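User: Predict the structure for this protein chain, please.
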Amino acid sequence: MPMTPKKSTRAKQIVGFLIAFAVIVCMVVPLYHFTGPVYESGDYYSLDDGWKVNAHGKDYEDVVLSEQLFEMFNKGDVMTLTRQLPEDLDISNAELQLYSVHSVIDVYLGEEQIYTYGWDYYNAGKMLGYGYNYIELPKDYPGKELKVVFTVTERNAFEGIPAMEIHNGSNALRVMLSEQRVNLVIVGFLIMFGLIGMLISLVMILRNGAFRKTFCITAFSFLAGLWTFCNGDLITLFVTDLKVKVFMEYTSFYVMLLPFLGYFYDNFREKAIPKALRAYYYSVLALDVVFLLVVFGLQAVNITHFPTFVSFQHVMMVLAIIVVFAAAISDAKIHHTLFTPLGFGFGIAVIIAAVELIHFNLSRYIVGFAENKYNSHMQIAALIIVATLFFDFGHKVTDHMYEDAQTKLLQKLAYMDELTQLANRRKCDEVLDGLDGDYAIVSLDMNCLKHINDTYGHDVGDKALKAFANCLGRAFPNEATVGRTGGDEFIAILPGTEEGAAGKYVEQMNLLIQRFNEEGEEVFTLSAAWGIATGTATDNPREIYSDADAKMYECKRLQKQAMHNNQQEPTKTNNS
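Assistant: Here is the predicted structure, written as structure tokens:
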């Protein structure tokens, strides 16, 4: 059985989606496997083992940071770490890199304090950030004792810390970029695509409300990219203040769900959607709005901070995943297929997101993070979601354009005179009945059609009608409705037009007719009779049309009389 054009188009779209997905995989996998961090000899030293730690009133000896778990640290807890630096360290431009989580930091080298961070914000009750701290070491650092003191500022802050490292400061940037190579490519795309797309969408929404979906896609892309940019610590390439970094990270993390849910708003308004499913979607959307108001309100007044609500956001993400499955199932039912790009793309993204959520929460609350640093892969899920949403939107636009073209074709066939390509009587009647405000109506009659048909045949008569219609179409403005109401009868309906302006259009028509006759390419000549009448909102358009028609017949009578007089004039001259 041959495929219909619509099914054939859909099959091509599915193949295109799979090819695009394969291209992305083929680009990312080599980038990950064949590139990597490059350390130059003597530019890196790990401070992972050999630590003395005081935590929760207990002393720990010879601690390996990457393997050690402590009791959960909460607000007000203090953790002190000390370690002797090797005498033979010879790293130029030495820079200590340590990772902190919602903590005030004091760093000492020997008896000298070389770094402090966060006391002003902590004393003011404000939120501190988390991420890497880069601390320049003095030239005489080898052999000295390094002491780091963490004063915790939030509940459930951490239960372990990553290994500290000493880098060559001039090489650290290159190492970070190589370590974050895949994230950097994905983040760059998500942010730039999102930012440019949002600006374009805002302009296009003013012309067509359907571009709300595009705005939702690009807003989600921007927020997901910004979150990854911060979560992966790439933002430290541009911003060194962890408070700024963490505020941007949590803001994008909490807000990104809103445009994601907003994308499906029109989908769940369709009548085919079950009421219970529609109610569920609206409930999740409303809950997310309330959740954001509460989270940002409490953060603004410093009652509690963003980290408190991470678990609640995970619950919201699970509720949103259910929305995704509902939308995908609905899409499959509408298109009568088990496989749709929306379902396939979201299926992969949801699996990644679900694994990430389970892994994070198991590690956070049951197993524990030895280094308290979670490397998320949610940016890959975000990239797949953005690509899927964009593909889905493009598919819907294509379908809409196809249906719109069919509708316009049917309307054209229903409202167009086949011979002259002008509006037919039905269309003219609808326009007449819908007139409001000031308007002018021009009733027109093409002269001598019967004579042309009788003399030259109906084919030439049809050619004359087409030529006359062409003059009308060129003479009257685009906003006018110009139509054929009978065999040789025509009408021009001009909304918002006075009689003087309508007269000028008629003059233009006569000039075009005169030019056509002067060219003399046809055996017939064109001429017309016309009548103009104007009306207002209080007038009956049908009566105004009758007035214009009466004037047209009077014009035709005068034209015939003038023609008769012209024919009689030579006879009178000969008889005199």
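The radius of gyration is 39 Å.
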